[in-house]
Write a structure and sequence with these properties.
By secondary structure, this protein is an alpha/beta fold. The protein has seven helices and twelve strands. Strands 1, 5, 6, 7, 10 and 11 form a six-stranded antiparallel beta sheet that branches. α4 runs parallel beside α5 (179-186).
């Protein structure tokens, strides 16, 4: 199976689909408890996107093990929360976390990142309509990558192809995968355009957790030791009217992961005006890896890079073109259009 065939961004601070909690197990002896924590330390040391930070994570975990810091935990969810907090205290990462797991092995068809869930209580698309004559509005909360959501994005873009203004609302968007954004972007660009680089250290290829090998993710020339894929948009060949539409992209401090990737793509190409608050700063792409003892880690293994600067937005977010409190962003756009 090729590396990254089933790649998805993992939703920031959401549960991973297919992973269940077990919170009533009896406390294991210290040897059992040490096993998954040592496994976690080894994974971070060997596979975290930034090697030096991975070593710092590992050193902290091993020091805590030596002090017996994790032996008293009975509840797996509480232990996962403690481990996550310890890791974030060393170096904050918008995706890295330990989670309770059902412990089932993952078969060949399950390799790569698992499909994330959307924001609790919100459908991937929660609003899609005309706001006024010539002004189309689409509220996006997640990119789960399923056929239904991909088709819904495509249907919206076709149904609103006469729009002079397109408002994309990602203020509650927590992430997901590239499929929906690829469909959406194909309606907005008149020519093939480079959007971003996605870099994975080659030492992580065995995890099968890199960007997908498809027409939108072409392999490029990256730094030594890095597998680079160039995310490019291909214009829609049957509908071109939105190529000339004016686009606004609404963001907030909750806008994370894949929604930030889309923000970067639209902003650096000049294709949209970003309005709202600086985004969450969850750049690294990740996938779950089992640790044993009913625990797993969402392990960041690569990063999305701005081709112009060579930088990512981990921990700092993306600054909108028009900074305003997020709850005022839509009104601000409509006022400017008036």
């Amino acid at each position: 199976m090729s590396v990254g065939v089933r790649w998805l961004f993992v939703l920031w601070m959401s549960a991973v689909a297919g992973v269940g909690c077990k919170t009533t197990e009896q406390a294991p002896d210290s040897g059992v408890r040490a096993g998954p924590v040592e496994t976690l330390a080894g994974m971070l040391e060997a596979g975290y996107v930034h090697p030096e930070t991975g070593k710092r994570y590992a050193a902290m975990l091993r020091a805590n093990l030596d002090q017996g810091a994790y032996q008293a935990y009975v509840d797996r969810a509480e232990l996962a929360s403690r481990l996550t907090a310890d890791l974030q205290a060393v170096s904050a990462d918008g995706h890295l976390r330990v989670i309770p797991s059902d412990g089932r092995p993952r078969g060949p068809r399950e390799r790569g990142p698992r499909r994330p869930r959307g924001t609790p209580g919100l459908e991937p698309i929660s609003d899609a309509r005309w706001l006024a004559d010539g002004i189309a509005y689409l509220r996006l909360n997640a990119f789960p990558g399923d056929e239904e959501t991909v088709a819904a994005v495509d249907q919206f873009m076709r149904a609103h192809a006469t729009a002079k203004v397109l408002i994309l609302d990602a203020r509650t968007h927590r992430g997901g995968g590239p499929r929906e954004m690829n469909v959406l972007l194909s309606y907005l660009f008149a020519q093939e355009t480079l959007l971003a680089y996605m870099d994975t250290p080659r030492r992580n290829l065995a995890l099968e957790c890199g960007p997908p090998e498809d027409v939108m993710m072409r392999e490029g020339q990256g730094p030594e030791g890095i597998l680079r894929r160039e995310h490019r948009v291909h214009p829609n060949t049957t509908e071109s009217r939105l190529f000339r539409a004016r686009v606004f992209y609404l963001v907030s401090k909750r806008t994370a992961s894949a929604a930030e990737h889309l923000a970067l793509a639209l902003q650096r190409t000049g294709r949209a005006t970003l309005v709202g608050e600086p985004t969450a700063g969850a750049n690294h792409f990740a996938c779950p890896q089992p640790l044993g003892d009913s625990l797993a880690v969402v392990l960041p293994v690569g990063r999305t890079v701005d081709p112009d600067t060579g930088k990512d937005w981990e921990g700092v977010g993306i600054t909108p073109d028009i900074q305003i409190p997020a709850d005022q962003a839509l009104d601000e756009v409509l006022q400017r259009l008036r």
